[in-house]
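#lab-general

N.A. 3:47 PM
ok so I finally got the sequence cleaned up, no stray characters, all 201 residues accounted for. can someone with queue access submit it? mine expired

B.Y. 3:52 PM
send it over

N.A. 3:53 PM
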Amino acid sequence: MEYSDIHIGGFTLAADSTLTAFGKPSAVEVLAGRVRVPQDATRSTMTLPTVIAPPTFVGFDFYDQPCFVGIEMREVMALASRSIQNGLGGSSDLVLRGSGLKQISVVLRWPGYSGYHIERVVNAVEADGRPLSRARLLVEVSELVGKFMERVRLGKMTATGGSEWDLVNAIHPGQIHLVGILHVGGNVYAPELHVDVATKI
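B.Y. 4:20 PM
back already:
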């Protein structure tokens, strides 16, 4: 499977055509002290026309951060749109321009919550005719992840007993970092989420 370049915070990394066992490009780095939230179950068999070239990975980092640090989910949920515009690296980048995609589907499946998933369709062009920016995509994805967490908090979704991925008893929002979105096939993306296992909340 071939991928287009990886777009991160205003600059581009060369595409990496190989996937690791966890279904992520080997070019996406997981920082020391963190583990990647597996998204293996999120795959797509959709075949796209050859003229469509979805970006492999779209990253979310603040200007003053190295790549792949991402944004703490607790912080993301508290940010106003203007704050995101001001602090996000490459916030105005038109991340889907030239890809040929009219919309993408972002799907989150959290391990330990078998049978549950949440999905959001994001248009490549907004209602006012503007192409989708990195900042707007961050808002869409953070709202999706936040909605999943809210459902867990309200008891609408429960983890398998004793799961190390339990969002109530094992992992807290302050440990979760939204690093970007990863292309998993067709027009489907999964949030790239890393958990800081060194942090105790």
